[in-house]
Write a structure and sequence with these properties.
The chain has helices spanning 24-29, 63-69, 77-86, and strands at residues 10-14, 19-23, 35-41, 46-52, 59-60, 71-75, 95-103, 108-112, 117-118. The protein has three helices and nine strands. β1 and β2 (19-23) form a beta hairpin. It is of the alpha+beta class. Strands 1, 2, 3, 4, 5, 6, 7, 8 and 9 form a nine-stranded antiparallel beta sheet that branches.
């Protein structure tokens, strides 16, 4: 499913570079927060991104960097490995795009890991 709408939240999980890229439009849908948290529900294969206060588990959003890159990038080898163990059909060095949905009037956005699309795979014509 390809979706180019700016109103559809999106993240990319890149296991080769141990990176989670949260696109700017996703952050806009959360109200341009200063901090975010990632929550993972392994039983339901869901990831949630929610705006947060400054807590130990929150990640700061560097808006000056987002203006240049159009996304926020979080790096964690441990988290990427854990996500890979939850989704064993994901390739070890794969890159996956997930589309999300706003929940509870935009308080958080959830992403279904079972519907992830592989990015950058070769297409034979």
């Amino acid at each position: 499913m390809k979706n180019n709408s700016l109103n559809v939240p999106m993240i990319v999980i890149d296991s080769k570079n141990n990176r989670i890229r949260i696109h700017r439009n996703t952050l806009h849908l959360l109200g341009d927060p200063e901090y975010i948290q990632l929550l993972v529900n392994p039983e339901r294969l869901m990831i949630a991104v929610l705006s947060s206060q400054k807590l130990k588990t929150a990640n700061v959003i560097r808006w000056d960097r987002i203006a240049e890159n159009r996304s926020c990038e979080l790096y964690s080898k441990i988290l990427i490995r854990q996500l890979g163990s939850i989704c064993p059909y994901w390739k070890k060095n794969g890159k996956y795009r997930l589309y999300g949905a706003c929940v509870s009037e935009g308080l958080f956005i959830q992403f279904d890991m079972s519907s992830a699309e592989e990015v950058g795979k070769e297409v034979l014509i």
